Amino acid sequence: MELGCNDFEPWVFSDGSMDATVSHPGLVEGGVEARAYQLEAVDACLGASTLLVLPTALGKTPIEWMVIAERLRQHGGRALMIAPTNALLNQHLENLREVLVLDDGPESVVALNGSIDWKRRQKLWDAATVIVATPQVIRNDVQRGSIDLTDVCLLVADEAHHAIGKDAAGEVGELYRQQAANALVLGATASPGSTDEQVTEVCQRLGLSRIHVRRAEDALLEPYAAGLRVQDVPVEVPEELRLLAAPLQRWLDTLVDQLRRLGYYVHSGRVTMGALADARGRIQVAINRREGLAYNAARQNATAQRLLNLIGYLLCQGVAASRESLQRMEHATGAEQKSAAAFLGDARIRDLRQTLAETPELHRKVDYTQELVLEQLRQDPDSRVIVFAHFRDTVNEIVSRLNRCEGVIAERFVGQTSRAGSRGMTQRKQIEGLHRFRDGECNVLVATSVGEEGLDVPRADRVIFYEPVGSEIRTIQRRGRTGRHRSGQVFVLIATGTRDEGARASALARERRMHEVLDRVRRSRGSPTGKQDGELLQAFTIKSDDGEQAPWEFVEAERERLAPELGTQRERIERIVGKPDEEEDELEDPAQDEVDPQRLRPRGQRGLDFYPSDAASERMLGGGEEADAEPIPVNLEGLALRAAEDIVQALTTDAVDPLEHATDIPCRIVVDHRELNTTIAASLRLQGIDVDVQTLAVGDFQIGDRVLIERKRVRDFVDSLLDGRLLEQAHRLVAAAPRPLLLIEGGDLFMQRAVHMNALMGALATLTVDLGLPVVTTADGEETARFLAIAARREQALLGALTKAARQRLGAAEGGDESLGRFVERQQPGEPGAEVAREERAGAAAQTVISVEASEVSDAGWEGQKVILDASGAEGALATRERKELRFDRLAMLQSVPGVGPATADRLLARFESVAGVAAATVEELATVSGIGAAKAARILEVLNN
Question: Would the pTM of this model clear 0.70, i.e. be above it?
Answer without folding.
Answer: no
